[in-house]
Amino acid sequence: MEHHPDITAPHSGPAVAPPGDLAIWFFILAELLAFGVFFAAYAFARAHNVELFNEMQQTLDRPAGALNTVLLITASWCVARGVEATRRARSATGARWLAGGILCGGGFLVVKGVEYAAKFGAGINLSTNTFYMFYLSLTFFHFMHVILGMIILIVLWWQTRQGVYGPADMNGIESGAAYWHMVDLVWIVLFPLVYVMR
Q: What is the dihedral of CA 74, 75, 77, 79, to 10 degrees?
């Protein structure tokens, strides 16, 4: 009896999973949800006090915010290049790109720290008004995520230098990179929302 292949079965390659560990994606989604709630609360408060928010936005250091946007986008680019180099078994190059991401992330923390010092030096705090309550809460919440992201990148940099990651094992570096890109994405939303949009 002649055997005929099942021509009705769809021909498809293996399912493409997101890079890194699945658990990191659940964590990232939870973090994005938390920021989303924060952003919605900010938008609601702004809608009920547009004049105050517009006036207070003018007191922010917009060039510093723009510089930090460039620093985080550049950091993400460096991290992506580091992951790609590591995937191609070029660990030393990958580590150098990760170091570039770390330097840009450190630059973000310095610029943001200068901003905070100026505000606190002017007597501004969480109780100053509704705008500054949101500004300080949102940006500090993100600031802490940048610090955590920096710690992750430093660990990845060290492990990549030691040859821990390579074409056969990319899970850890891809998970850490995914977290860093989330931190960058949140700032890309936060900057125009708080500093620019009127």
A: 170
- The per-residue pLDDT for range 30-88, each reduced to its tens digit, is 999 999 999 999 999 999 999 999 999 999 999 999 999 999 999 999 999 999 999 99
Q: What is the pTM of this model?
A: 0.86
The number of C-alpha atoms within 13 Å of 57 and in the hemisphere containing its C-beta is 16
Instruction: Tell me if 172 sits within 8 A of 152, measured CB to CB.
Output: no
* Closest C-alpha to 46, from 140, 125, 119, 130: 130
How would you class 164 by CB atoms within 10 Å of its CB: exposed for 0-12, middle for 13-18, buried for 19 or more? Answer: middle
What topology does CATH give the domain 22-54+63-196?
Answer: Four Helix Bundle (Hemerythrin (Met), subunit A) (1.20.120)
How far apart CA 94 and CA 79 sit, in angstroms, is 8
